[in-house]
Amino acid sequence: MDPRTPCLIGIAQRTIREQPGPEPLDLWESVARAAADDARLPVGRLDSIQIVHTDSWQYDAPVGRLAERLGATPRHQVYSKVSGTAPQLLIGAAAAGIAAGELESALVTGAEALATRRAYRKAGEHAPWSHAADPRPPYGWERPPHPSALAHGLFLPVHTYPIMETARRAAVGLAIQDEMRERARIMAPMTEVAAANPYAWRRVARTPDELLDRFVGWPYTRSTVAVLEVDQAAAVVLASSRLADRLGVPHDQRVYLRGWAYAEDTWEVAARPALSSSPAVAAAARAAFERAGLGLDDMHALDVYSCFAIALRQACDAIGLDPLDPRGLTVTGGLPYAGGPASDYVLHSTATMAGLLRAQSGHGLVTGVGMHLTKHTYAVWSSEPGGRLGGRLGGATPVHTAEEVPVVASYSGVGKVAGYTVAHGPGGAAEKGFLVVEVPGGRAYAVVEEADLLAEAEERELVGREVRVATDGKVNVASWVT
Fold first, then answer.
1. Counting CB atoms within 10 angstroms of each CB, which of 213, 242, 270, 434 has the fewest?
2. How far apart are CA 70 and CA 434, in angstroms?
3. What is the pLDDT of residues 6-63, one digit of tens each?
4. How far apart are CA 56 and CA 34, in angstroms?
5. Residue 439 in contact with residue 469, Cβ under 8 Å?
6. What is the distance between the alpha carbons of residues 322 and 316, in angstroms, rounded to a whole number?
7. What pTM was computed for the model?
8. Do 321 and 289 touch, CB atoms closer than 8 A?
9. Which of the four pLDDT bands, split at 50, 70 and 90, describes residue 200?
10. How confident is the model at residue 394, as a pLDDT?
11. Separation between Cα atoms, residue 310 and residue 180, nearest integer Å
12. Secondary structure percentages of the chain, helix, strand, coil, to 5
């Protein structure tokens, strides 16, 4: 084996259930030290420290503050942008740097304390956390939402993802109630995995019927979407095989990144060539398996990113995976049940997968999703070395980028619904409809606000139906064509 072969040798996770809890910097330090201890690596010897963006608090120098806490002087430091794919991009870059001889070791960590932030807000208090950035930097978007999406108030994932779900529902010919029942059947087994996971946020097994509670972004219910307000942290340590040998890390404690890939769909939901499916997922999976020299049937365990059901379904459609596969779709319990700590989840699924492969050996697939089903990572992990890595220390080249359908900002006339959702408020009442409408020259966003139209949208299929759109030049408003 090449002595520069990268391997994952340290893992750590924490879940804090009593609020208020520690601030993110404390959590980073805690899991970093635990993962380094697991790797038998003194924290001061870390060549690279990489941190996944935290939504909980904006620090003035996040990586520098953690390095100071650890007494480390890493020559490579990265603080990511916002994205559910960020953990795998950082891990992939670290592995590439190790394989190229540019690094010997790397820490990738992330933490959220959003439950604690909520507790402080509820008490009317300000979080008393350290080293606040001043001035506060802009939010960590890689790319801000389209001006038309912002004008229509359509930027929250709980509203964008169900638009794609309704498009898929119509494309495969599922009735509204059948889609809901099928979703609950797919996700109920995930609750059983979470119930057995000591780090899961919601450790309660639930039946399919129990998951069909109040709507948030119709047709999604509160119990079938990612739970964001959690206090969780995770870290992994990677090293060269040469360093692992020097540290005395047993071979059965080493897990190898056999192959991984990154791909992109369009950044705007309305710009997607097909709202119901993802060629980017298929391309990422194909490249990851080809680089690993393995296939889906070789996987002993799977963790498919599950922020919303459409992420699971598009992945299963693209790679030919039965959503009720006996291997299960998650090793953690998934984002709705194990916890969805903003951009961090893939650190938790990777750490859990690594622990599983240490215990029973074999191969595992871990996937990630970023933004509005825009970004996709597929990673094949194994107890056995082999395969080849994609990417480089500076980042990854996407194996697929989608061509965009033009977004028409302002439109008046008749169009055809491509996908839609109904936003529900905290009390459960329908408040606003969001539509993506096929119009001459591309697609447009539109809103629906009339109560009777919102009720009808939830009772009968709207995808494929003609609607009349009027505009004030900024916001397009839809009504049904009689």
1. 213
2. 47
3. 999 999 999 999 999 999 999 999 999 999 999 999 999 999 999 999 999 999 999 9
4. 22
5. yes
6. 6
7. 0.97
8. no
9. very high
10. 64
11. 12
12. 35, 25, 40
Contact 272, 149 (CB under 8 A): no
Joined together, the tokens standing for residue 191 give 């609750």
CA distance 133 to 466: 49
The DSSP 8-state label assigned to residue 405 in this structure reads P
**Is the Cα dihedral 349, 350, 355, 359 positive or negative?**
positive
Closest by CA to 4, choosing from 118, 95, 113, is 95
Both structure tokens of 185 = 């059947």
Q: What is the DSSP letter of 401?
A: B
d(CA 460, CA 371): 29
Angle in degrees, CA 157, 342, 268, rounded to 5: 30
The residue whose two tokens read 């506060």 is 136
The amino acid at residue 369 is V
Which residues 6+ apart lie within 8 Å of 430 measured at CB? Answer: 215, 218, 422, 423, 424, 451, 454, 455, 458
How many other CB atoms sit within 10 Å of the CB of residue 77?
17
What are 297's two structure tokens? 């049937």
Cβ atoms of 75 and 131 closer than 8 Å:
no
Residues in the chain: 482
- Note the pLDDT of residue 269: 96
d(CA 475, CA 482): 22
* Cα-Cα end-to-end distance for the chain: 70
